[in-house]
């Protein structure tokens, strides 16, 4: 390792070791090289859009040791990189994460970056991020829609501690409120222009087949009963009462999309497309849910 001195050296070395170890990539990257870039830059507290001229910069002895240790842990323990770094990037924003929360990776980030256009109409929308986890969806929404008011909701107190940290990180305490609730059941009566959710939707069989990296994430944030539909079904039952007449519901269900359609054949789901990949996100209007 003594011959490795620059940022580029460690990225190349890390990518080679990751490829040799046949790691699974699914928490912000999808290949060994991008994972190595994210690890090295994250370990050095450098931004993901680092200018190319910096990649020849030499690391100090302490930095070399830190990067090497993280590469070794990523391989030997199969811990997802965001947990090793304590941070994840979502919609161009950095979020604190730990093993109490799901790692942000939802394709809903693309909707946020577009201001949910053309679906969200009000100029100052009331928005609910249901099953908020780290708060990444709701907080990013508040950042991209500066006139919005956002409520973050989760059943886990431990999760909400992380969400509160992220709210404070971006100084959004005046526009982002945090509530502990079992879905919508413990919320005060209120109507929202948008309810957005990335709930647990993994069934038992799929859970057993997940790569080792996913087993570091909280089961509560991933699995929902035997077929994965329990939480989604409850959201569909409850959401209509909390939407304005022009309100919309956006929910990620991933690989459970076919099961959702089979379970609700009469609902006119709009399945959203994403330029950067991702699928299994549906949209319904308040009128759809009222039928």
UniProtKB/TrEMBL annotation:
CDD domains: AdoMet_MTases
Catalytic activity: L-glutaminyl-[ribosomal protein uL3] + S-adenosyl-L-methionine = N(5)-methyl-L-glutaminyl-[ribosomal protein uL3] + S-adenosyl-L-homocysteine + H(+)
Top EC group: transferase
Pfam families referenced in this protein's UniProt entry, alphabetically: MTS
Methyltransferase small domain span: 124-206
Record keyword S-adenosyl-L-methionine present: yes
Record-level GO cellular component terms: cytosol; ribosome
Domain of life: Bacteria
InterPro entries for the chain: DNA_methylase_N6_adenine_CS (IPR002052), HemK-like (IPR004556), Ribosome_uL3_MTase (IPR017127), SAM-dependent_MTases_sf (IPR029063), Small_mtfrase_dom (IPR007848)
Protein task: Methylates ribosomal protein uL3 on a specific glutamine residue.
Protein name (record): Ribosomal protein uL3 glutamine methyltransferase
Organism: Candidatus Thiodiazotropha taylori
Lineage: Bacteria, Pseudomonadati, Pseudomonadota, Gammaproteobacteria, Chromatiales
């Amino acid at each position: 390792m003594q011959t490795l001195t620059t940022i580029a050296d460690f990225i190349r070395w890390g990518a080679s070791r990751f490829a040799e170890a046949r790691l699974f990539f699914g928490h912000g990257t999808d290949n060994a090289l991008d994972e190595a870039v994210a690890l090295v830059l994250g370990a050095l507290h450098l931004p993901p859009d680092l200018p190319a001229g910096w990649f020849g910069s030499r690391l100090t002895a302490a930095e070399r040791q830190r990067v090497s240790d993280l590469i070794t842990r990523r391989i030997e323990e199969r811990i997802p990189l965001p947990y090793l770094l304590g941070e994840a990037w979502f919609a161009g924003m950095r979020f604190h994460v730990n093993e109490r929360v799901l790692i942000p990776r939802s394709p809903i980030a693309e909707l946020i970056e577009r201001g949910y256009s053309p679906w969200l109409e009000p100029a100052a929308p009331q928005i609910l991020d249901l099953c908020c986890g780290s708060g990444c969806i709701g907080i990013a929404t508040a950042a991209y829609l500066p006139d919005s008011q956002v409520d973050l909701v989760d059943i886990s107190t431990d999760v909400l501690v992380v969400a509160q940290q992220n709210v404070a990180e971006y100084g959004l305490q005046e526009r982002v409120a945090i509530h502990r609730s079992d879905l919508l059941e413990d919320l005060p009566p209120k109507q929202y222009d948008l309810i957005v959710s990335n709930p647990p939707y993994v069934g038992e069989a799929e859970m057993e087949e997940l790569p080792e990296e996913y087993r570091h994430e909280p089961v509560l944030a991933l699995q929902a009963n035997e077929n994965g539909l329990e939480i989604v079904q409850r959201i569909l039952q409850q959401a209509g009462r909390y939407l304005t007449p022009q309100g919309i519901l956006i929910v990620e269900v991933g690989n459970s999309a076919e099961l959702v359609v089979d379970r609700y054949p009469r609902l006119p789901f709009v399945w959203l497309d994403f330029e950067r990949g991702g699928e299994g996100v549906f949209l319904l209007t308040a009128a759809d849910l009222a039928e």
